[in-house]
Amino acid sequence: MKDSEKSKEQLIAELQDLRRKLGGVPPGPHGDGPVPEAAAPSGNPSCGIFDSNKPAIALSHSGASEEPGCGQARRHERFAEISDLADCFPGLVWIAHDSECHHITGNRRVRELLGLSSNHDPAGLVTGGWGAGHIKALKDGVEIPVEELPVHMAAKGKEVRDFEFEVLLKNGGPLHLFGNASPLNDVEGKTCGAVAVFVDITGRRRSEDYLRKFELLAANSRDIILFMRASDGRILEANAAAVHAYGYGRSELLGLSLQDLRAPSTKRSAVAQMIEAESKGILFETFHQRRDGSTFPVEVSSRGGVIGGTRTLVSVVRDITERKQAEEITRRSEARFKLLSATAGRLLAADQPQAVVNELCRNVMDHLDCHAFFNYIVDRKTGRLHLNACAGISEEQAREIEYLDYGVAVCGCAAQGACRIVAEDIQHSSDVRTLLVKSFGIQAYACHPLMVQGRAIGTLSFGTKSRPGFPEQDLAVMKTVADQVASAMERMRLIEELEESRDELERHVRDRTAELAKTVADLEATNQELQDFAYIASHDLQEPLRKIQTFGSLLQRSIADKLDETEKDYLARMESSARRMRQFILDLLDYSRVRSMPSPFTLVDLGDIAREVLQVFEFHLQRNGGLVEIAKLPQIEADATQMRQLLQNLIGNALKFQPPGAAPIVKIWSKSVNRTTCRICIEDNGIGFDEAYLDRIFSPFQRLHGRHEYEGTGMGLAICRKIVERHGGSISAKSRPGKGSTFIITLPVKHKAADDDEVLQGPGTLSC
Description:
alpha+beta
């Protein structure tokens, strides 16, 4: 056994044994052994024994006559014998060779502790200071003065008993020491030195500190801590948390075994778990039982060991009621989610959702611990509620409540008010609305209206016989189910109505198809006539206009000098109106020709077409100092003539709609949308427009400005849109008043592409 593991009584016994050995007399006439106590003359201090009655240790023989100088030699010899004897002691021994402690030696254990050689003289080891010294002595955390050290006090003739202190080693520590110190007397009874014998109790002190910490931890722990005898599970010790948790008094609890704390259903596994805990430790969950018989879930961490010679199990038990409740809430939430998500999908996919509705409601009953459900649907023919499905009552009771009037009972009131009604503690309620469900033994009842587009098409309600009310999360589940059922019921009603009218619809479709076919044929013929008429009319209308312009010019040349200013103005207005009418007719003719006289699609280079169009505006650009920049444009399959007209109209608008005195700047570029679509952008620095009028500017004859500000008929952009749509594309614009405009044309590169990566966007949704 190590010194640190010995009890205080064992340490004191060893110290007394050493003191008896140190108090023995040297060899004399009686041989090498100590002189028998009876043989020693009474009162002679030289033969005193190191005990409580004779504290001093003699350093010479009893009654021996010594020659001069022999006493001093003998004393040195005696000190040497004491030192040899101290080397055999497993504890720490300091020997003061004089009363002033100028010469102090230590035994082998001291030298080993301090790392000194066997012939080292450890003077100053306990004289304080870290310079030359090796240790620092402390008592209750305060350094001990040199004169109060045990060996120093004993050297002054004072017996020191059961002295405990702490030493800090220069190269280690700290150590806790416990022991005694006694004076050494010469033949004259004077103190000539001292011996101090100590044992290292550092391990014991650490164990005591650890035990105190453990006791403090156990006392303040919220977890239950149990010490049990491994052989039979008898409880040897328990903390305050255990007393509080199980409801027993401390003395009562210590009289129980582990089996008394286990819930009845778990006692079978207790023995096997104890065996496993003793062999390798175990962590498991189970149920424990309180004094009042109630049980609670626990998590147990148990391990075996030997304490005080007894095989002991130490168990840390944690009440996991809150954790289990949280897990149960999570489990129920997951179950609700799975229930609702699965049934929602089935309701939407089912051709006949009524069976799914019945199954869903029964599953909700089980999930919410309900005992009945009722599903009423509004019967439009009778103006009453009809029982569509139910559970929890007999067939006879169901027949009695097959129809229900609005405002009657809970369901009738919920349908009438289109609001949820929750009735609680029904068996003690005086509300007449609850009389019907009270007769079924229901305690709590929740009815939700089935709402579709703001109107109630029925009700869905659940009732329980075991609880006086519903928690909010249960009501939320009912609400979700009611919404799902409402959607399913409405879908089912629509399906039934569709099935009833299918034949009639098919007949109407056939009749309508025939009418449409005839109408289409008539429209095609009419369109052809209109196109012919527009073409002929445009030519016929141009002839009288030419005559008006011709005769107007003749009048202007022949009688202009005979007309007054008013007559000249009349004549100018006539000529101007004729010119506008002729332009109007030409624009109308171009508009009709987009589809009536198209050319086939061929591969055209939009860049070449744009440069050809630019030649038309060459004089205008030179006169106004304008600039048109044309970037690289793609090759596409298109009607070349219409593409030329499209670009001419857009460039002409960009040059025309400019603030007075401004030099027009027009930029034309393109970018690829994907492999089959391109985008052409025409940007100007003109007057711009409010995008609120975006749809209007592409309609025929629509103008945003008066003809006195900017000339034109309002047909240019309408013709552009018709051309773009004929090519399967779209046209839009981005603009702000005074900030210019950007017209955006999206066109297919080819007209029979195998794969399009992007749906063509409509006006107002594009960006360059």
